[in-house]
Amino acid sequence: MTGYAARYPATAHTFLRGLDDDVTIDEDDGHHLSRVRRLRGGEVLTVADGDGRWRPYTVVRVRPGTVDLHAEGAPVVEPHLVPHLVVAFALTKGTKPELAVQKLTELGVDGVTLLSTRRSIPHWSGSRADAALARLRRIAREAAAQCRRARLPDVDGVRPVAELRGRSGLVVADRAGEDPARLPSPAGGEWVLVVGPEGGFDPEEAATLSSPASGQAGPARLRLGPHVLRAETAAIAGAAVLATRRAPERRD
């Protein structure tokens, strides 16, 4: 059995840390599968551990809020997509970060980092930041289940722009940048797409991003069209463009 969980003919997809022969799904996932999806005995679903391993299961029994499963095949490892792809975008107001995280997860990114910039309107800190980040991780998990990924993206933040200085593989969204087809593959095996706020990075932040580490070239610049995009739109559009340049890692 090879391939992605998304290609397996299953009714649903969910996550569980252990992929034993017999498992029980309860709590929120159990409620969703039993009450919302209304799974029944004999139906097939796939279960992933979030780190790339997944396995097909048959529903043995359904109880209120709980689903008992039995494995119908050996665990399969979903190959990494290369280059590795992280999207770092400026924190925006309202539910826009939630939309961005959802769509970036569906596009297969490996990581999402929220950036605190001087021109960002919202500023998260303390308990508010912890609660908001926990919600974004739940959204990523739900989106990963919907699109049947076996790997969960790493959702991180809120980070200052200065933390990106000198990082290899930086690609800054810029209307004056290169056409996507001309963007070179990253020498280090990772792209880090950086998207600023709608007003752009301030001069000091822009200078920080443009300062290469010793022995490295400056960041690449990626053009996403002729118009000014909202931060969340640019993040999604940039990830979609770069996703077309990725392929499963080959294991010789």
User: What letter string, H or E per element, gives the SSE order?
Assistant: EEHEEEEEEHEHEEEHEHE
What is the 3D form? globular
N- to C-terminal distance: 18 Å
Return the CATH topology of the largest domain.
Alpha/beta knot
Number of continuous helical runs: 5
Helix proportion range? 25-40%
Give start-end ranges of low-pLDDT stretches: none
CATH top level class name of the largest domain: Alpha Beta
Strand elements, count:
14
Q: Main β-sheet, in a few words?
A: 6 strands, mixed
The appropriate CATH architecture of the largest domain is 3-Layer(aba) Sandwich
What is the rounded Rg?
20 Å
Mean pLDDT: 92
Sheet-strand content, in percent, reads: 25-35%
Blueprint of the fold:
Blueprint (H helix, E strand, L loop, with lengths): L11 E4 L6 E4 L1 H10 L7 E5 L4 E11 L2 E6 L4 E2 L3 E2 L1 E7 L5 H11 L4 E6 L9 H22 L6 E7 L9 E9 L11 E6 L7 H8 L9 E3 L8 H13 L3 E2 L4
Parallel strand pairs: 1-3, 8-9, 8-12, 9-10, 11-12, 11-13
Antiparallel strand pairs: 2-5, 3-4, 4-5, 4-6, 7-14
Helix pairs in contact: 2-3, 2-5
Which terms summarize this structure?
Ribosomal Protein L25, Chain P, single chain, 25% helix, alpha/beta, six-stranded mixed sheet, 252 residues, 2 domains, 5 helices, six-stranded parallel sheet, Alpha/beta knot
Task: Describe what this molecule looks like in 3D.
The relative contact order is 0.16. The protein is 25% helix and 29% strand. It has 252 residues and is an alpha/beta fold. Strand 4 and strand 5 form a beta hairpin. It is globular. The chain folds into 2 domains: 5-77, Hypothetical PUA domain-like, domain 1 (Ribosomal Protein L25, Chain P, Beta Barrel), CATH 2.40.240; 81-248, SPOUT methyltransferase, trefoil knot domain (Alpha/beta knot, 3-Layer(aba) Sandwich), CATH 3.40.1280.10. It is built from 5 helices and 14 strands. Strands 1, 2, 3, 4, 5 and 6 form a 6-stranded mixed beta sheet that branches. It has a 6-stranded parallel beta sheet with strand order 10-9-8-12-11-13, covered by helices on one side.
